[in-house]
Amino acid sequence: MLTAADFEPIVSAVPSFHPKWKELIETFDGRTEVGVEFSFEMTEHLVSRAAVGDYRDFVLLFAALEVPLSDPTTEIHDSLTMGFLEDLIHSCERKHINLERIADCIIGPRLRDEWNWAFNYTHAGKKPYLDDPIKG
User: What's the pLDDT at 123?
Assistant: First the structure.
């Protein structure tokens, strides 16, 4: 089972989110898994930033995701892909945030692969936004 400590290196990469995370962890009651809470809160944070045209936190977060996404056999990998990335894609679409703009923030190969997978999964075979694995 994942703990808050598993997400700390990721959260630390996004200073503007850290106060919200600290508050969440201090009041965390364990009724849901910490990965679910991370996914919900980080998604809300990023989408609210994107809604006003601020994508800096995407760049910071996406760079930090390369390491935990490097091993597809871990629980955190599953939480970040089948949880967070899928939630982020759906939430951005609901709020009419351009996914191509989000994808432009991806600089690492692991996240690029996982983003494509999550997008294709959530869109059941529709054409992905990221055809070129280098350019995006």
Answer: 83
Structure token pair of residue 79: 């939480």
Which pLDDT score is estimated for 125? Answer: 57
Q: Give the angle subtended at the CA of 36 by the CAs of 117 and 86, to the nearest 5°.
A: 20
pTM of the model: 0.86
pLDDT at 39 over 90: yes
Cα first-last separation, the chain: 33
- CA-to-CA distance for 120 and 60, rounded, in angstroms? 24
- The Cα–Cα gap between 106 and 129 comes to 12
* Cβ–Cβ under 8 Å, residues 61 and 69: no
- How many C-beta atoms surround the C-beta of residue 78 within 10 A? 14
Residue 45: CA count within 13 A, CB half-sphere: 22
Hey, what are 70's tokens? 């490097």
Q: Which residue has the tokens 């990965």?
A: 35
Token pair for 20: 């919200």
